[in-house]
């Protein structure tokens, strides 16, 4: 399976649009994310970090988390929902290819709320970037917040997404939400809360 995804030329028809992915999947790199950069400073000199990412898609951000924070454990949760067809299979395969061989990474295919109920771990940092609908973001936050260690962080991406990320985040955390540091908006439209 590794060889198939080192060099890839795949064509997939999604909602009538044909996508062609060509080349080495690891050529594409994630853009920096503000809450991850904040976490890097917040957890400076820690080599025992446990981190979870909710909503992984193709593993770009997971790879960025790995490279920036060097966690002892990185748990990646995504439904890679079968209703998305071939593209979700490609996303899972790309995630696996980007991260295989790195120590202590666990990929879990499942719905976020279900996984949170059965996963008996605590995390220093949980990054949420799954379904952006208000009700889903609120569900992810409420499911995963109890699993954040005291002194840890919970954060996510696309705060200003029109589907309702900000409404969900503000509804749960109110004024505790951080979207700016030193007067500047967090890179990547991120948000975070110190727990």
Q: What are the main properties of this structure?
A:
195 residues, Rossmann fold, two-stranded antiparallel ribbon, 27% strand
Give a summary of the structure in a few sentences:
Helices cover 33% and strands 27% of the residues. It has one domain (27-194): Vaccinia Virus protein VP39 (Rossmann fold, 3-Layer(aba) Sandwich).
Distance between the termini: 40 Å
Poorly predicted tracts of residues: 1-23
Supply the CATH superfamily name.
Vaccinia Virus protein VP39
The whole-angstrom Rg is 17 Å
CATH class: Alpha Beta
Classify the fold: give the CATH topology: Rossmann fold
Counting DSSP H or I runs of 4 or more residues, the number of helices is 7
**How many individual domains?**
1
Instruction: Compute the average pLDDT.
Output: 85
What is the percentage of strand-forming residues? 25-35%
Query: What structural class results from the helix and strand content?
Result: alpha/beta
The ordered H/E elements are HEEHEHEHEHEHEHEEE
Strands of the widest sheet, in order across it, are 5-4-3-6-7-10
Number of strands: 10
Kindly state the percentage of residues in helix.
25-40%
The backbone outline, from C-alpha atoms, is globular
Largest sheet: 6 strands, mixed
Quaternary: single chain
**Architecture, CATH level 2?**
3-Layer(aba) Sandwich
């Amino acid at each position: 399976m590794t060889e198939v995804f080192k060099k890839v030329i795949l064509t997939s028809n999604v909602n009538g649009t044909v996508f062609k992915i060509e080349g080495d999947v690891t050529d594409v790199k994630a853009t920096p994310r503000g809450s991850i950069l904040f976490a890097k400073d917040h957890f400076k000199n820690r080599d025992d970090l446990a981190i979870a990412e909710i909503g992984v898609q193709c593993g770009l951000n997971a790879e960025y988390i790995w490279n920036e924070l060097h966690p002892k454990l990185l748990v990646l949760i995504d439904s890679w929902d079968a209703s998305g067809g071939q593209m979700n299979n490609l996303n899972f395969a790309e995630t696996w290819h980007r991260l295989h061989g790195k120590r202590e990474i666990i990929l879990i295919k499942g719905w976020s709320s279900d996984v949170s109920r059965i996963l008996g771990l605590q995390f220093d940092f949980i990054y949420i970037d799954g379904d952006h609908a208000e009700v889903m973001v609120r569900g992810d936050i409420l499911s995963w917040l109890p699993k954040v260690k005291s002194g840890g962080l919970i954060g996510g991406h696309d705060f200003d997404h029109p589907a309702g990320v900000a409404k969900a985040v503000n509804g749960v955390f109110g004024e505790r939400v951080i979207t700016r540091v030193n007067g500047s908006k967090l890179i990547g439209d991120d948000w975070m809360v110190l727990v």
